Amino acid sequence: MPTEIIQWFPGHMAKTRRMITEHLKQVDVVIEILDARIPYSSHNPEIMKIIEQKPMITLLNKASLADPDKTARFVKKYTAGNRVCLATDCITGEGMNKIAPVIKEVLSEKLKRYEEKGMSGRKLRAMVVGIPNVGKSSLINKISGNKKAKVENRPGVTVDKQWVSTTIGIDLLDMPGVLWPKFDDRAVGENLAITGAIKDSVLEIEAIALALVSRMRNMYPALLCERYKLGEISQYDETDDYELFRIIGKKRGFLISGGEINEERTANMLLDEFRAGKLGRITIEKVNE
After folding, report:
1. What CATH number has the domain bearing residue 23?
2. Which helix (H) or strand (E) segment is 271 a member of?
3. DSSP state of 11
4. For residue 57, which of 81, 22, 37 has the smallest C-alpha distance?
5. Domain enclosing residue 257, as ranges
């Protein structure tokens, strides 16, 4: 049986903290991008300490992969907390046309001062922050209309800051995505691993898949059973997560010599299908957590 997911992941938080601090005075607003499937876990608590009083908007990105009902509730929760929040998606284009108006609304007083000084054409500047693999570069490319930011579906692609001009009157400063050095809550580390914010190569893939199975059977049992032809979830009440994981591997025919389950192949399949949205639109956090 797989051991538990490791609890500490090295990062470059100190370097990114310095970079954000050095450039904060150059920008008018900070755009924080979260993964709509894990809004709590994808929020870097160190960021809030660094940006201090700078105006900020929060984007719940990858919304087409997330549970729409939960996303709406998260947006409502954050907006009620004096935080401007939008659901966005780079594939479907959801929320993209709202970003510029919201930024201008947040900065309305500054824009008014510019107008009074005869500087109404001056471009606004926004710093884009977020952990790895939340879609920062994809979102920047969508707004700019050009593929200026390097994009890959794996964490850690943007390794240095880069300025990107857009057609909406706002220049964007893309900062490298970085994780904080230690997770106090094991569930946060698991959520980040499940969604791909942490490189699979540094983790035990079977342990991540087990964490996903656990969340699916508790939060979206019907979707899990439908995808893997498991029948009714109630028949697995006495079955632990590990055995259910093996049953899924067997259903898919992932067998090796002697009829044993190929656990690595099963784990990779589960994570790939979740990340691609093949299990359905899923948010693996509760709104009140």
Report:
1. 3.40.50.300
2. helix 263-275
3. -
4. 81
5. 204-275
Q: Residue 33: which of 151, 160, 155, 174 has the closest Cα?
A: 174
* Chain position carrying tokens 């977020």: 130
The SS3 call for residue 243 is helix
pLDDT at 258 exceeding the cut of 50:
yes
pLDDT digits (tens, 9 = 90+) for 19-77: 888 899 999 999 999 999 999 999 988 888 888 788 999 999 999 999 999 999 999 99
Show the beta-strand stretches assigned E in the chain. 29-35, 56-61, 84-87, 124-129, 162-164, 170-174
CATH code (residue 249): 1.10.1580.10
Convert 14-31 to b/e letters by CB count within 10 Å (16 or more is b): eebbebbeeeeeebbbbb
Phi-psi region of 82 (alpha: psi -120 to 50; beta: other; left: phi over 0): left
Whole-angstrom distance, CA of residue 271 vs CA of residue 209? 6
Distance CA 178, CA 190 (A): 16
Q: Same domain for 128 and 265?
A: no
Q: Is 180 contained in some domain?
A: no
Question: What is the residue-wise DSSP string for 104-170?
Answer: HHHTHHHHHHHHHTT-TTPPEEEEEE--TTSSHHHHHHHHHTS--S---SSTT---S-EEE--SSSE
In this structure, what is the dihedral angle of CA atoms 246, 247, 253, 258, given to the nearest 10 degrees?
60
Q: How many domains does the chain have?
A: 2
- Who wins on pLDDT, 95 or 48? 95
**Is residue 187 situated within a structural domain?**
no
